[in-house]
Amino acid sequence: MNNKNKRTNQKGFTLIELMIVVAVIGVLSAIAIPQYQKYVAKAEVAAALATMTGVKTNVEAYAVEYGAFPSAAQSAALGVPANIPQGTIAFAPAQSSAGSIDFTFSSSDVSSLLIASEFQLDRDSNGSWSCVASGAQAVSSDLLPKSCRP
Fold first, then answer.
1. Could you state, in order of their start, the residue ranges of all structural domains in the chain?
2. Terminal Cα distance for the chain, rounded
3. Hey, which of 1, 26, 105, 136 would disulfide with 87, CB 3.0 to 4.6 Å?
């Protein structure tokens, strides 16, 4: 029998096929990882807004009853959680019943896109609330929920 006419069955992958697979995985992960980090940051902002919304109800009741925005000393009585792993909530009274509830993300336990950034719920003297992210340390507008767009 002639050895030239014999076909050998190939088993396994060639080196070039393996290199192509590794390159495709590298490209996909280069796209997917930043998108995943952005998704996690959006979820953390939404969780912070949900916490602030619960506090907002108590602040509104206080402002209506006393005609003034509460001070930082009254935060515990108004239901501000004592320990929030992602950051801190603070009150910033303005004039009369106007003021803001500020949320500042901590330097740990949050996405790297949110470290030391902040946003706030502002109340005007008419009782209207708005979500604002402004200033040098503001949360990026693409991470804010639709109700918080500037």
1. 15-148
2. 82
3. 105
Distance of CA 146 to the CA centre of its chain: 13
Around Cβ 109, how many Cβ atoms within 10 Å? 12
- Full-prediction pTM beyond 0.85? no
CA distances from residue 101 to 12, 22, 48, 90 in whole angstroms, order as listed: 62, 49, 11, 6
Cα torsion angle, 19, 22, 24, 27, sign: negative
Measure the CA–CA gap between 113 and 41, rounded to whole angstroms: 7
Residue type at position 69: F
Report the distance separating Cα 14 and Cα 125, nearest Å.
72
Provide block-wise average pLDDT over 10 residues at a time, the chain (150 residues): 62 89 94 91 91 88 87 82 84 84 86 89 88 85 80
Backbone angles phi, psi at 19, to 5 degrees: -65, -35
CATH superfamily for 15-148 is Glycoprotein, Type 4 Pilin (3.30.700.10)
